[in-house]
Amino acid sequence: MVILTQVLGYATKLPRNFRRRGLIDSLRLHVAGGAGGSGLPRYGGIGGAGGNVYVISENNLILKDVKHRLKDVNLKAGTGGTSTKKGLIGVPGTDLNISIPNGITVYDENRIKLGQVNSKNPKLMVAKGGKGGCENTGYCGLKGEKRTIVLDLQLLADVGLIGFPNAGKSTFLSAISKAKPKIADYPFTTIRPQIGTVTYKDYRQISVADLPGLIEGAHVNKGMGHKFLKHIERTKLLLFIVDIHGCQVSFKHVHRSCLETVLLLNKEIELYNPDLLERPAMIIINKMDMEGANEIYDEIKPKLNNLSEFLSEFDEAIQPKRVLQFDDILTASLKSKDADEMLVIKEKIRFIIDKYEEEKAFAEDMNSNEDNLLANLKRRAQQFAPTLI
Predict the structure, then answer these.
(1) For 290-315, what is each residue's pLDDT tens digit?
(2) Whole domain around residue 45: which residue ranges?
(3) End-to-end CA distance of the chain
(4) Is residue 378 classed exposed, middle or buried when 0-12, 13-18 and 19+ CB atoms within 10 A define those classes?
(5) Considering the domain boundaries, does residue 252 fall inside one?
(6) Which of 86, 105, 193, 362 has its CB surrounded by the most CB atoms within 10 Å?
(7) Residue 85 has what DSSP assignment?
(8) Band of pLDDT at residue 76, cut at 50, 70 and 90
(9) Same domain (yes/no): 146, 173
(10) What are the residue boundaries of the Obg domain, all occurrences included (predicted)?
């Protein structure tokens, strides 16, 4: 697999062992419920129902384990037993249970959500077995339901790193955690999500997910847009990292300035899932050690603090309907891995996450108290209200 086109001057192939490593975050399976058994019309015998296919949650399991366990991706439940003179009601077919990791979302081939397997819902039927032969079916057993399912994993991390290729996300992850993502001076270095853990002096830990760089059009699944954007859906904080000098991923798009980069990332997320704009967000303006960086930042700082007031200055094609309000804006030279700089960033991340978690907990307590109050009022009203005879 060539990671960049020869037009950009890179045609280096990834080492085979690197391509094999990493996270499997999606697995496609073909499942079928068992066929129903034949009935016995002479005696009114009913065939056994075909077995169902279920996915069942199992702790300490990853999708790579599921892939290795299954000898075949075409999976079928047992066929229902045929009705006989000695047994007029056929034996039901054996159900097929597929163990999958906890927290997996299951979709069909049309991306329609079938359900999620978690601690509250540990079992989900994904293909129903066929009905056994009876009078209504002419005593013929019916075929089981067939479908293609996709087991989809969304990373569970506190912080999701968002940016275009080569903005410095992997460099940031390596600087604040013990994670060792592949880092190089060309775009698209990260091809699989990476997770690092930030450990504080009081042993508090915050997980950070480094997602492969987006490209323009990621919301319509250009590049591998949906594959990467889905992982920010379960994060608590969106952390944008952008290059002070902007970026140009391909010759199909003009060079984007730093502010245009921010707006484009904002719009890609909005078009993918506007609810994500409700999340707390902060931004790091990276590569401040480069020539002319301070002058550019002094020029864009007033606009960066209130982008919505300056939207008219930009091309309509990159204008989001709703502009993100950042909880904090920091500048950095992530490549230098300056300890003081990293400490400030780590403390800002912790402060924002804790602040929003406290607000969320307070809101939940208020709602709970309101529900309890309403329940008490209804109970008292029923207790003391006049009874109609």
Answers:
(1) 999 999 999 999 998 888 899 989 98
(2) 26-153
(3) 81
(4) exposed
(5) yes
(6) 193
(7) S
(8) very high
(9) no
(10) 21-156
Give the pLDDT of residue 191. 47
Calculate the dihedral angle through the C-alpha atoms of 328, 332, 337, 340, rounding to the nearest 10 degrees.
Answer: -60
What DSSP designation does 2 have? B
Our CA angle for 129, 135, 138, nearest 5°, is 75
Q: Is residue 7 included in any domain, yes or no?
A: no
Most confident of 163-172, 203-212, 238-247: 238-247
Report the mean per-residue pLDDT for the chain.
82
User: Two tokens at 88?
Assistant: 């007029």
Beta strands at 281-286 and 194-199: parallel, antiparallel or unpaired: unpaired
Where does residue 71 rank: exposed (0-12), middle (13-18), buried (19+ CB within 10 A)? exposed
pLDDT higher for 194 or 294? 294
Residue 189 has pLDDT above 70, yes or no: no
Q: Mean pLDDT throughout 17-37?
A: 77
Structural domains counted in the chain: 2
- 194 and 311 share a domain? yes
Q: Is the pLDDT of residue 7 over 70?
A: no
Please write down the long-range contacts of 108-111, taking CB distance under 8 Å and 24 or more positions apart.
108/147, 108/148, 108/149, 108/150, 109/147, 109/148, 109/149, 109/150, 111/150
Strand order in the sheet with 53-58: 96-101, 53-58, 123-127
Can you tell me the distance from the alpha carbon of 93 to that of 83, in angstroms, rounded to the nearest whole number? 13
- Residue given tokens 């609810």 in the structure block: 275
Cα–Cα distance, 93 to 167 (Å, whole number): 55
Query: DSSP of 43-57, one letter per residue?
Result: TTBBPPPPPPEEEEE
Q: What is the pLDDT of residue 183?
A: 44
Q: What is the 3-state secondary structure (H, E, C) of 212-274?
A: CCCCCCHHHCCCCHHHHHHHHCCCCEEEEEEECCCECCCCCCCCECHHHHHHHHHHHHHHHCH
- Picking from 211, 175, 213, 232, the residue whose alpha carbon sits closest to that of residue 346 is 175
- Whether pLDDT at 190 is above 60: no
Half-sphere exposure in the Cβ direction for 362 (13 Å, CA): 6
Looking at 153, 172, 206, which one is the last position of a domain? 153
Select from 131, 153, 175 the last residue of a domain. Answer: 153
